[in-house]
Every structure is written in structure tokens, then in C-alpha cells.
Specification:
- The complex is a heterodimer.
- Helices cover 49% and strands 0% of the residues of chain A.
- The longest helix of chain A has 28 residues.
- In chain A, helix 1 packs across helix 5.
- The chains are: A mainly alpha, B mainly alpha.
């Protein structure tokens, strides 16, 4: 038997702190895992009313309804893998929570749609920076066969220097043009036409006028059912 | 797509004999028309976009059909790739980002015109380019009211063109796209669609020279030009000698590069002898044939490069006059081409194969049909309709009364068929599919329906417009029997076995006063009495 001779600085207090810290750390890790998991769930995301608009198109996409039965959740695509990056993404994501609480009235479908392009641009940039890492959780380039004759060949031979999001944008959520070709005036006009609003309303709403003008009350939610179905790829 | 590789035909020996005829024409041609078939003058460094190879590589897999068409095209041989036509600027209304490139789905005539400058200039302002603008205001009254707006996208606009709408999310509104109608209003403001006739993505010369290039729109009840051509001697010869048409040749001048038969292109656009080719397809048309009443037309060339057709019955506009175009914008008159000049260009094409006498005779037969249609049917029918509208007997709203359909079909379908049939020498369409139906409609539907609506004022509002007209005088000769319907009145002196020739004798029959004849006369009594 070897008798343990702890160094002299390991006093009883230090030992207690180490054990407590260790257990606390493990508990905290479990908490983070659970926290990241819960905050990545569809149920959590859609507790904000503004997120239900994103859910509308998502529910009509192949990422919600697939023949294989695989269903991607909000977090599967929008939260990185691994506890560190997942926690980081959630930490950064609190800015969305702050905007939801103190920013524009994103619960209004009109306001939400007016701001959608910037949200889409940011999301695409997020995917691009991570080399579409969350796509690759499920999709393996080498394994992509597709249903058309040359889908596999295209993915093998035409993807050098490209990442998934470069081609596969507008896949799940409502179609938004690329940032390069986006035209704010045309987008505003589309929103105004869709919700039957007077020209110029969009500009006022974007300037934050929605709280003071009763004329800009949200249109009925049923309007959203008329949206064009999402789910087309960038091709 | 078939390509026709044919032996070049020997140049016909006869030339020069029509030189005297041509001289005045040539003077006109030299002034108003470009001199030679268009060659692209742009420096080749202007095309061959470096990103094109990537497009091709992927599209060979993603859409092998169009990639293969392009591979076999003259564009490919010249080094023109996808990006050269589809490249767009980010600020373009319909620009989209596609695999890292800024492109537009629609390649407009303006885009094609970057290289094909002359064709672009010629088609701009042509009756083809204005095909949407011309009917834009009228479409709702028929397509929307009688059927539904859905039919505009699937029907009218597929030939006439749509006003393409780009939505705020960058997509092209499916109510207006896909569309390759010839008068399409493109997002860049240009009018027309080259791919209406030049099939993507091969853009084969041979294909565009085929009559089939026109068939998608120039067929059917109101403009059965396909059927008319096929039923004409020209079409007969074309079908039999298609392999001798030299359709794929670089130079395709009637009388030089081919003589087997003419196609639509030959007469309406093609080079023939010294007549240069043009992409202004209506240039050689002296008459308007798709109107309630045909008119000979001036071709007015405006200072912005566009053109306008004006009835020759009015005074020709002076140079410098400001005119309003079909789309509402204005421009100043640069030159006026008379119907006689336009006819002369068309006739000069004929001279490559026909004598001057034959050509003039044919044109006379054609003009006679148009004038007959105008004076006997078109003008009285238009006057009767105008009277009924003016008197409030018809509502201003089109197509809410059966007579309006009757009248529409009289001029728009049957009348147009008759006139087109005569213009392109199909006896069947000039007569059975055309003027016979005009006559049948006029006497058996249009007049009776109009009289019914006019009621007590029928004599004034309806019959007043045909009374005394030579063309309708036959109605008064009710005793004039004829064996065409298989009945003749019995010979005056009835024998047990009368000789057949006697029974068929018209004069004898007319004198007979039998009960049967009275019945026959009664059948026509409404028409006859109304005519008095």
C-alpha cells in the first residue's frame, strides 16, 4: 500500500473546494448540455411569436417533412455542434432576444417580413463562416446521390471552393434574394402589396413608426397562408 | 432538332431581266433599309466570359438538354457562352445571384442586341415587338371577362408576350413568366423575345427559317397562316423539296441560295435578290388584315427607332410631327413608307420566281378579296354594330350579348381567314374556311341577330346599311332557282317523263309558279323583307 502524502498546500479547505468545484463543474456541464439542447428545440424557439413566421415555411419544407422521416429542428441547422460552440451560439443569440424584447415589434407579421431579408443575410453569413457545418451533421458530400441522374456528379465535381449554403439558399424559409441583388424598395412594395398596405407604409414601419400608428395594425395571420411555398433550392 | 445539310443549289441563270422593275425599289431600299445581311461587328474580345466554363460544366449535368443544344450551336463555335448572354448587373431589376455570378434568367432583345445590333434595331418597333402593347387594353374584355385572367398567361400572352413582373423577392411572377411571346415587355424595358422564333439554346438558323418557327402563334382560327401555307402551292413545294431548301446556309438569299420554295421568312423577312433581309416582319405588309375593316397602312419610322402603322386613308404625317405610340409614349416622325412602297418590296420578292405579270395579277386577286370583304361585309357590319351601340340597343360592355360574339367571329376569325387565305394563295382558306363562312355568318346569324336587337328600327339601323349595295342585290332575285341545293322547280309543261336537262334549266324554272317555290321563297322572306 502506498500512503498518500498530499502536498502541504492541500489543506482540508482546498480539498473541499476542489471536490465542490469538480462536482459543480460537472453539474454545470450537464446544465449547459441540457440548456443547449432545450434552447435548440422547436418548442423553445417558437415561444417567441415572431419565430412562428419562420416556422410556417419550415413546416412546409423537406427539412420538416421528409420521406425518410428525418426531421431537422431549428437548432440542428442554426446551432453549432459541441457544447462550447453551441453555448457560444446561444450567447450570441441573446441579442435576438434583446431585440425581440426592446426592438421593433417583430410579432407583427408585416414588421417581421420587412426585417426578414437582413435576418436571412445574417443567417447565410453564419452558415458560410462555418463552412455549412450544421448541414454536414446530416449531409455527407461523398454520399449525396439525389434523385436526378447527375446529382452525385454535380456534388463531386462542381463544388470546389463552395459550401452548401452558396447554392442551397432559400431552402427552408421564405425566399429572400441574395444580398448582392436585394432591392429594398421592391421588397417593401411586395410586402405592402401582400398585406394591402398603402405605399410608403413599409418605410414608416422600418423607421419604427408602428407603435404610434394604428393604421398599421397587423394584417390577419391567415394572410401568411398565401405565401409561396418555401423549399426550393438555390438552383 | 433536325439540321438539314443540303447541297448548295446552282445559282439560277436568269438575273437582270427584272432590273428595270427593281430600280425604283432599290433607291428606296438603299435609303431606308440596311444594305446587307447582318454580321456581328462587335470585337470577339467582347464575349467569352471566363465564368462560362463553370456554367457549362455544371449544366452539362444539371440540364444536359440545353447544354447539348448550346454545344451544337453557332454561339458555341464562336465562343459565346452562358454568361455572355445571361450576365446581369446587380442593380438590374431581375438580377439574381446564381452560384456566385450575377445573372438574369431573361435574355431580352436588348441583351441579344449587344452583338446582334441590326436585328435588334429592326425588330424594335415592329408589329412583332408591339404585339403586347397593341392588345394590352383589349385583353381583359375577352380573356378576363369571358373566361378568367388565368387565360391571359396561358393563352394570349404566350403569343403576344407578357409584361414580365419581377417580385420583391427577386422571383418572376408566374402570372407573367415563363413567357416567350413576341411582344413581351422585358424587365429591362425592351420589347420582344428573340426566343419566340429562335429556339433556345441552339439558335439554329435552319430552325428559324422553317415555317414551323411561326406555327406556335400563326395557326388556329384567327390567323391560320400555318394551315394556309401548307395548303398553298408554296407549302406544297416546300414539303416536297425541303431538302433542297439549303436551310442551314450562312447566306440564305432567295433566288441565289435556294429556289425550291419560299417559307414564311422568305416573303416576310428574307433576303431575296437585292431585297435585304429584315427583322421588321410587318415591313412588307401593305394591308392590315386582322382588323374589322382592312386598311392599307403607312409605316411610320420614328426618331427613336420605333415604328408605327397608320391608315393610308388619313393624310400621311409630316416629318417631325409628334405621334403617340401604342404604349402611350411619343416620338417624332422620321420617315413615312407608303403602302405602295411596302407592296413593292413584297412583290420584288415574288419576282425571284414569278413574272411581273403574274405577281401583279396575284396581288390584284388578293386586293380584290380584301376590298370585297371590306365593302360587302366588314364596313356594313361595323356600321350596324356602331348604330346599335350608339342607340343604346347594345350595352357598351363587349361580349355580354350574343351578337357581339357573332360580330367578333365575323371579322376576327372568319374574315381574317378569308383575307389571309387570299394573301397567301390557299383557295380553301380564302373560300371554304374564309369568305364562305363570312357570308354564312353575315346572312344567317349576324343580320338576323342584329335585326332582332334593332326590333322595329331594323330597317333603319340594320338593313339601311346593306340596301342598295350591289353585293347584296342578289337577295331580291328570289325567283332565281339553281340546282346547287339539289332542287329545281318542275319544267313549265310537265310531261310524265321530262328530260333531265330541261328540269335543270334555270330560265324555265324561274318562270314556274309552283307551291314548292313559294315555300322556298318564304324561307328567305325574313332576309328579303328586311332588305327593303
Amino acid at each position: 500500500m502506498i500512503k498518500l502524502n498530499p502536498p502541504a498546500f492541500i489543506t482540508r479547505h482546498v480539498l473541499f473546494a476542489l471536490v465542490a468545484g469538480g462536482v459543480g463543474g460537472v453539474v454545470f456541464m450537464f446544465f449547459l448540455l441540457e440548456f443547449d439542447d432545450y434552447t435548440s428545440s422547436n418548442a423553445f424557439c417558437t415561444t417567441c411569436h415572431s419565430m412562428t413566421y419562420a416556422e410556417e415555411s419550415y413546416r412546409r419544407s423537406a427539412h420538416y417533412d421528409s420521406a425518410s422521416g428525418v426531421r431537422a429542428s431549428c437548432g440542428d441547422c442554426h446551432v453549432s455542434e459541441g457544447i462550447i460552440m453551441a453555448t457560444y451560439d446561444h450567447a450570441v443569440g441573446t441579442k435576438d432576444l434583446i431585440k425581440q424584447l426592446f426592438g421593433a415589434n417583430y410579432d407583427d407579421p408585416v414588421v417581421s417580413l420587412l426585417h426578414l431579408p437582413e435576418a436571412a443575410f445574417a443567417a447565410r453569413e453564419w452558415f458560410r463562416k462555418r463552412d455549412s457545418a450544421t448541414c454536414k451533421r446530416c449531409h455527407t458530400l461523398d454520399a449525396i446521390q439525389g434523385t436526378r441522374a447527375n446529382t452525385a456528379a454535380i456534388h463531386q465535381e462542381e463544388t470546389d471552393g463552395k459550401t452548401c449554403i452558396d447554392c442551397h439558399l432559400n431552402l427552408v424559409h421564405r425566399k429572400v434574394p441574395s444580398e448582392q441583388t436585394f432591392k429594398r424598395e421592391a421588397w417593401n412594395a411586395m410586402v405592402e402589396e401582400e398585406f394591402g398596405l398603402a405605399p410608403g407604409t413599409a418605410v414608416r414601419l422600418l423607421a419604427g413608426a408602428e407603435f404610434s400608428e394604428p393604421a398599421t395594425a397587423p394584417a390577419p395571420a391567415t394572410k401568411l397562408a398565401e405565401e409561396p411555398p418555401a423549399g426550393s433550392s438555390g438552383h | 432538332m433536325k439540321h438539314f445539310r443540303t447541297r448548295p443549289l446552282p445559282r439560277p441563270p436568269r438575273r437582270g431581266q427584272h432590273l428595270l422593275v427593281l430600280l425604283p425599289l432599290l433607291a428606296f431600299v438603299a435609303v431606308t433599309l440596311p444594305a446587307a445581311a447582318a454580321k456581328v461587328t462587335l470585337d470577339p474580345s467582347a464575349w467569352g466570359h471566363p465564368a462560362g466554363a463553370d456554367c457549362v460544366s455544371c449544366h452539362e449535368k444539371a440540364s444536359p438538354g440545353i447544354a447539348e443544344q448550346w454545344h451544337q450551336s453557332a454561339h458555341q463555335s464562336a465562343g459565346v457562352n452562358c454568361m455572355d448572354c445571361h450576365e446581369a448587373k446587380a442593380e438590374d431589376v431581375d438580377a439574381i445571384e446564381h452560384e456566385g455570378q450575377i445573372i438574369a434568367t431573361i435574355v431580352s432583345p436588348k441583351d441579344c442586341g449587344r452583338c446582334h445590333e441590326q436585328e435588334y434595331a429592326e425588330q424594335a418597333g415592329s408589329v412583332h415587338a408591339e404585339a403586347y402593347a397593341i392588345i394590352e387594353d383589349r385583353v381583359p374584355a375577352l380573356a378576363h371577362n369571358v373566361t378568367g385572367a388565368e387565360m391571359q398567361a396561358a393563352g394570349c400572352d404566350q403569343c403576344h408576350g407578357s409584361e414580365v413582373k419581377v417580385r420583391g423577392d427577386g422571383t418572376l411572377d408566374p402570372a407573367t413568366w415563363p413567357n416567350s411571346g413576341i411582344g413581351r415587355i422585358n424587365p429591362d424595358g425592351s420589347k420582344g423575345s428573340c426566343s419566340s422564333c429562335h429556339g433556345r439554346h441552339a439558335f439554329s438558323k435552319a430552325q428559324a427559317r422553317e415555317p414551323d418557327a411561326c406555327v406556335r402563334c400563326h395557326s388556329g382560327p384567327d390567323s391560320p397562316d400555318k394551315e394556309i401555307f401548307e395548303a398553298s402551292k408554296h407549302g406544297m413545294l416546300y414539303a416536297a423539296q425541303r431538302e433542297a431548301m439549303n436551310l442551314g446556309a450562312d447566306s440564305w438569299i432567295a433566288g441565289q441560295d435556294y429556289t425550291a420554295a419560299p417559307t414564311c421568312v422568305t416573303c416576310h423577312m428574307g433576303a431575296a435578290g437585292k431585297v435585304p433581309a429584315t427583322h421588321d416582319v410587318g415591313l412588307r405588309n401593305a394591308w392590315s388584315l386582322n382588323t374589322p375593316v382592312s386598311e392599307q397602312q403607312y409605316l411610320v419610322v420614328l426618331d427613336d427607332g420605333s415604328k408605327l402603322e397608320l391608315p393610308a386613308s388619313a393624310k400621311p404625317p409630316k416629318r417631325g410631327t409628334e405621334l403617340t405610340k401604342a404604349d402611350g409614349s411619343g416620338a417624332k416622325v422620321k420617315a413615312v413608307v407608303t403602302p405602295e412602297r411596302r407592296r413593292l418590296v413584297m412583290s420584288t420578292v415574288c419576282l425571284e420566281c414569278h413574272s411581273k405579270t403574274m405577281t401583279q395579277g396575284f396581288m390584284t386577286q388578293f386586293d380584290n378579296v380584301v376590298e370585297l370583304y371590306n365593302t360587302k361585309f366588314g364596313e356594313p357590319a361595323a356600321a350596324i354594330m356602331a348604330g346599335l351601340y350608339d342607340q343604346g340597343l347594345l350595352t357598351p360592355l363587349p361580349f355580354d350579348e350574343p351578337l357581339e360574339f357573332t360580330y367578333w367571329e365575323l371579322w376576327h376569325d372568319e374574315g381574317a381567314r378569308a383575307r389571309h387565305g387570299a394573301s397567301m394563295a390557299s383557295p380553301n382558306h380564302a373560300w371554304w374556311e374564309g369568305m364562305y363562312l363570312v357570308g354564312r355568318n353575315f346572312y344567317s346569324r349576324f343580320l338576323p341577330e342584329a335585326r332582332a336587337i334593332a326590333g322595329e328600327r331594323a330597317a333603319e339601323l340594320v338593313d339601311g346599311h346593306i340596301d342598295g349595295a350591289a353585293g347584296h342585290a342578289w337577295l331580291a332575285a328570289t325567283e332565281q332557282a339553281n340546282p346547287i341545293l339539289g332542287w329545281m322547280p318542275p319544267a313549265p309543261e310537265s310531261e310524265p317523263e321530262p328530260a333531265a336537262p330541261d328540269a335543270a334549266d334555270g330560265d324555265g324554272a324561274a318562270e314556274a309558279d309552283t307551291e314548292a317555290e313559294d315555300v322556298a321563297a318564304d324561307d328567305r322572306s325574313t332576309t328579303e323583307e328586311g332588305g327593303r
